[in-house]
Amino acid sequence: MRLGLVIDLDVCVGCHACAVACKEWNASGTIGPLADYQPYGAEPSGVWLNRIRHYEVDTYPNNKTINFPMSCMHCEDADCVTVCPTGASYKRPEDGIVLIDQDKCMGCNYCAWACPYGARELDRASGTMKKCTLCIDRIYDTELPVEERQPACVLTCPAHARMFGDFDDPESAVSRTVRERGGYPLMPELNYNPTNQYLPPRRKPVVPVAGDKPTGLRATLKKFANRLVRR
Amino acid sequence: MHPAFSVIFFTVASGAGFGLFSLLFVADVFRLGGGFSRDELVFGGLLAMALVVFGLLSSAFHLANPKNAWRAFTRFRTSWLSREGVFAVLFMPLALTYLGAIAFDAPVGIRVVSGFLVAVLAWITVFSTGMIYACLKTIRQWNTPLVPANYLAFGYASGSLLLLLGAVVARLDVVPYLAMAALILSVAAVLKAIYFFWIRNPGLAPTLKTATGFTRAGVKLLDVGHTHGTFLTQEFGFQVARRRAGALRVAVFVFGFIIPGLMLVLVYERGSDWAAFVAAVSGLLGAAAERWLFFAEARHVVNLYHGAARC
User: Fold this and answer.
1) How many CB atoms within 10 Å of residue A95?
2) Fewer C-beta within 10 Å: chain A N or C terminus?
3) What local confidence, expressed as pLDDT, does residue A133 receive?
4) Which residues of chain A are within 8 Å of residue B206 when distances are taken between CB atoms?
5) Pairwise CA distance, residues A190 & B204, whole Å
6) Which has more confidence, B309 or B178?
7) Of the candidates A55, A112, A122, which has its C-beta nearest B221's C-beta?
8) Does the pLDDT at position A211 exceed 70?
């Protein structure tokens, strides 16, 4: 099994609900607590396992705002695991989930240096590194109804922009969607082989926008002059 | 990258310690300038070991959870950080064996073989320190073979200046020590110059386009999504102003190579003892400036997601 996420950049509305649900679940999950620094102060900050950034692609009138959620990509060739000196970081062979053993981590930050996706954040309260667990304490919980055995971010997404599944199975929903929609990994040139895939925005016709037409004597004269020149 | 002073002190001190010990072995084998006495060799060796130990201890200060530091010796097979720790600890008993062989007049075979092994182990340890940084694909300024080469060159250069100071204090013939220091300093200066030249060109590094996958049109950041800073901006967001970096590069060469070089001339021409002291102190200052700049100029690819077009 190779478990991971598919994120649909076409429908993500950038509401940060996935990040909030992630924080809510994982603050009390296996990796929790997730520290907050000055949550009500002048410089609020804290540990988040999922962060959403916002970009603009192309220029007017073809531009589009892209909301870009990022969490651990659970890479096939995860350098964060290779560089870890204590063995706290490990990749589970059975489902490919990359985890951190909180009892072994010494907080040297080396794995965060090795991660190009900014998926790892040091918790200053515990002195250990924190990262996405793919909600490992949800997805295997047989007490939960089958449809709820999914990561908190996927369950909460109001736009259904997130999917969870097994990429090793070519007929799983995630594999099929990635195939049909042309899903792609981020920074493939670094050869980390990230499991998570991103679906590009669909092609849509450009909406014609009426431009502001100049008026007045000068514009009228110009119009006539242009006609004369064209003849 | 955020320059952590504990790591700067650690790499400069331990590099100088390993360099000093290796060159002490060379001075012992070839009896350079008449050769150090037995006590002087032991004292110099212990001083080098002290530099290494202080460096290692200070490196523990940048850990957020030092109680697990002992586990850092366990992933020897994959992690350069672990390898560095293991080699640095292995260095200690071998170094003591060599110093013991000197102190108790052991057969010359034991002395030379253990000394050679210590020198090789010192080389491997400093190489591992450099590889901690050089193996990271996420930071192009570090992902180059020039990094371990620079770490070794600065370690040996600082060591050679300390050894020269020792030779001056011990009233040996300083000419071979001057020649050794001059040669190593020249090599280190050239390597550092190549490094600075090399990192100017961004090469085939990732861009915001490959980082987001939008390679067919321009991409620009609208919002980073966090209110204040995050761990990522604190750890990787550090940026040094170009003018300041330029001034520091000049400082690296002035303190690291030019002042020590002039002092070597003074020691040779005038035989002035203080010049050797100034050379050693200036060399270490230059190495510290070099190490600070090494961190400050490194740009992690995660900065792309925060709006940098290139790193």
Assistant:
1) 17
2) C
3) 96
4) 116, 187, 189-190
5) 10
6) B178
7) A55
8) no
Contact A110, A130 (CB under 8 A): no
Domain ranges of chain B: 5-305
Is residue A138 very low, low, confident or very high in pLDDT (cuts 50, 70, 90)? very high
The pair of three-digit structure tokens given for residue B272, joined into one six-digit string: 């002035």
Chain B residue whose CA is closest to A83 = B79
Average pLDDT over residues B229-248: 91
Nearest CA in chain B to A130: B231
Structural domain harbouring A115: 3-229
Chain A segment 44-63 residues within 8 A of B by beta carbon are 44-45, 47-48, 51-59, 62
Query: Phi and psi for B254 in degrees, rounded to 5?
Result: -65, -50
Please, is B62 exposed, middle or buried when counting C-beta atoms within 10 Å of its C-beta (0-12, 13-18, 19+)?
A: middle
Query: Does the model's ipTM exceed the 0.90 cut?
Result: yes
pTM (2 d.p.):
0.92
What local confidence, expressed as pLDDT, does residue A60 receive?
83
B3 contacts chain A (CB < 8 A): no
Residues 7 through 36 of chain A touching chain B, CB cutoff 8 Å: 16
Q: Is the pLDDT of residue B202 over 90?
A: no
Count of A-B CB contacts under 8 Å: 181
**How far is C-alpha B20 from the chain's CA centre?**
13
Q: Residue A191: pLDDT above 90?
A: yes
We report the CATH number of the domain holding residue A117 as 3.30.70.20
The rounded distance, in Å, linking the Cα atoms of B260 and A110 is 34
Architecture of domain B5-305: Up-down Bundle (1.20)
Number of domains in chain A: 1
